[in-house]
């Protein structure tokens, strides 16, 4: 005697004893084996069940591949749907920077230098090239001045050997 785990066309799992493998084939072929739940004679052999194994094992094993195959697409669709919402791509981007302590200190020094210059020098504005030239050629007494010069004017002053320095401009003061 041999026990087969069977399932019908409706997925009902059941077990049945047969005299032999050949006897099983013959009985199924002659529609002598039918499902105890729906009486369908369209049954097929599943696995050879251990003696104490119930029909649940067969159901679980048929169900696992089906759910396992259907499972992966679900999380993928879920993540792709939630991704655009999680990415703040619609917000306007602003320049950002991580400032190191050294950078912070450098900027502090720049600010101090600038404040020192502007507090201890005369502001001459657009007359800076003219005033600088006067001082350079000894027409007026040397003093600290600051003002504006165009790139061309700055170039001329430099070529005349007049020493001057660009006023430090801090990034956050450009606006
Ligand atoms: Zn059935």
Write a structural description.
- By secondary structure, the chain is an alpha+beta fold.
- The chain contains 6 helices and 5 strands.
- It has helices spanning 21-29, 55-70, 73-86, 101-120, 128-136, 151-159, and strands at residues 2-8, 13-18, 43-45, 122-125, 145-147.
- The strands form 2 sheets. A 3-stranded antiparallel sheet has the order 2-1-3. A two-stranded parallel sheet has the order 4-5.
- The radius of gyration is 45 Å and the shape is rod-shaped.
- Zinc ion binds at residues 8, 10, 12, 35, 37-38, 40.
Radius of gyration: 45 Å
**What's the total number of strands?**
5
Q: What overall form do the CA principal axes indicate?
A: rod-shaped
Q: Portion of residues in helices?
A: 40-55%
By helix and strand content, what is the structural category? alpha+beta
Q: Provide the list of bound ligands, each named once.
A: zinc ion
N-to-C SSE series?
EEHEHHHEHEH
Cα separation of the termini = 93 Å
> How much β-strand is present in the residues?
5-15%
Mean pLDDT: 77
The largest sheet, given as strand count, sense and whether it forms a barrel, is: 3 strands, antiparallel
Count of DSSP-assigned helices: 6
Strand order of the largest sheet: 2-1-3
Flag low-confidence runs. Answer: 66-83
Supply database-style keywords:
alpha+beta; two-stranded parallel sheet; 5 strands; binds zinc ion
Briefly say what this structure is.
The chain has 175 residues and is of the alpha+beta class. It contains 6 helices and 5 strands, in the order E-E-H-E-H-H-H-E-H-E-H.
């Amino acid at each position: 005697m041999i026990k087969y785990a069977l399932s019908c066309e409706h997925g009902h799992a059941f077990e049945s004893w047969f005299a032999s493998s050949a006897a099983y084939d013959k009985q199924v072929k002659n529609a002598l084996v039918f499902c105890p739940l729906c009486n369908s004679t369209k049954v097929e052999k599943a696995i050879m069940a251990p003696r104490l194994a119930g029909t649940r094992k067969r159901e679980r094993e048929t169900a696992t591949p089906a759910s396992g195959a259907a499972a992966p697409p679900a999380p993928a669709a879920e993540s792709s749907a939630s991704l655009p919402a999680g990415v703040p791509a619609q917000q306007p981007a602003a320049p950002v920077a991580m400032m190191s302590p050294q950078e912070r200190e450098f900027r502090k020094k720049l600010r101090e230098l600038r404040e020192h210059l502007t507090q201890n020098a005369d502001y001459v504005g657009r007359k800076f090239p003219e005033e600088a030239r006067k001082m350079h050629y000894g027409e007026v007494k040397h003093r600290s001045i600051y003002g504006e010069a165009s790139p061309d004017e700055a170039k001329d002053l430099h070529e005349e050997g007049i020493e001057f320095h660009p006023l430090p401009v801090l990034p956050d003061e450009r606006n």
